[in-house]
Amino acid sequence: EGDGAHGGFPADGVHRTSRLTAPPPVPPRSRLPRPRRGPLAIVVAVLLVLGVGTGVWYINSGQFTKVPPLLSKTEAQARDRLDEAGLDVGKVKHAYSDTVERGKVISTDPGVGDRIRKNDSVSLTVSDGPDTVKLPDVSGYRLDKARELLEDEGLEPGMVTKAFSGEVAKGFVISSKPGSGTTVRAGSAVALVVSKGSPVDVPDVTGDDPEDAKAELAEAGLKVRIADERVNSEYDSGQVARQTPDPGGRAAEGDTVTLTLSKGPRMIEVPDVVGDSVDDAKRKLEDAGFNVDEDRGLLGLFGDTVEKQSVDGGDTAPEGSTIKITIR
Fold it and tell me: Which residue ranges run through the membrane (predicted)?
């Protein structure tokens, strides 16, 4: 037992371990040679970039163009321009125009210069020239009806003047300018001449009492208005001092004559002309607003000096009254 192992150790007391054999080393992986980029790869890359850029350009701009300038072109010229631009002609409408010659383009849709897809269509509006109207005959119509007829035809009633007429009743149209049947542009103004009725000679009623004046004017077919104010005149207070229209003037039947009544003559101081020559005396008295009557008698036939006057100098007399001077 003494030669055997003790406690699990060898007899010589030396602890031994078994030797492990290491695996053979893995040979290093050889690096594959990196292929060189040749000219073909560069060309492909460039073409790829160009292709992408071209696609982006086409999406954003390449498929669009602009509507060419077509205004004031004939329809045929406009069609040619659109064809050259790669565009089609859409609807062609016609409209009146006072500024664009007949047969030429007024407008486009889309408008000139607008962006549009190629091969899309552009609509055209072509001028038929100015809209014209044949002037209706409005003579013999009341003014309001004549205006209505003109407006119904697309015309504007223009300036109205009045004239006497023995044939056309007052307030009715005598004629128009331009005359009926004339071709004019729509919207043109048409002047009208309207009757004032038959003319009436205005009688002279100055110096009359108001009631007498009214009766005379009414007999002539005229109306009367009495003015609020009164004026000094040669006529007595309350008599007609003046009238409008003036006596002898012409008025239409039914027109109104305005009468202004007198508040009596204005009292004026009479110049002293005794001792003056006849010419000087007359000038002074007339300048003051008086009429002059000369009394020469037998003794004053060849005289030239004022001996006396009917109203003494310094006194007052009605304006327009007569002062008599005695000459010796």
Answer: 39-59
For the stretch 218-263, pLDDT in tens is 999 999 999 999 999 989 999 999 999 999 999 988 899 999 999 9
How wide is the angle at C-alpha 74 spanned by C-alphas 73 and 75, nearest 5°?
115
Q: Which two tokens stand for residue 198?
A: 């038959």
CA distance 68 to 58: 20
Task: Spell out the residues 6+ positions from residue 295 whose beta carbon is closer than 8 angstroms to its own.
Answer: 324, 325, 326, 327
Distance of CA 8 to CAs 17, 19, 31, 190, 262, Å? 14, 20, 54, 145, 174
Q: How many CB atoms are located within 10 Å of the residue 65 CB? A: 16
Domains of the chain listed by start with CATH number: 69-127 (3.30.10.20), 134-195 (3.30.10.20), 199-262 (3.30.10.20), 267-327 (3.30.10.20)
* Residue 113, both tokens: 């210069």
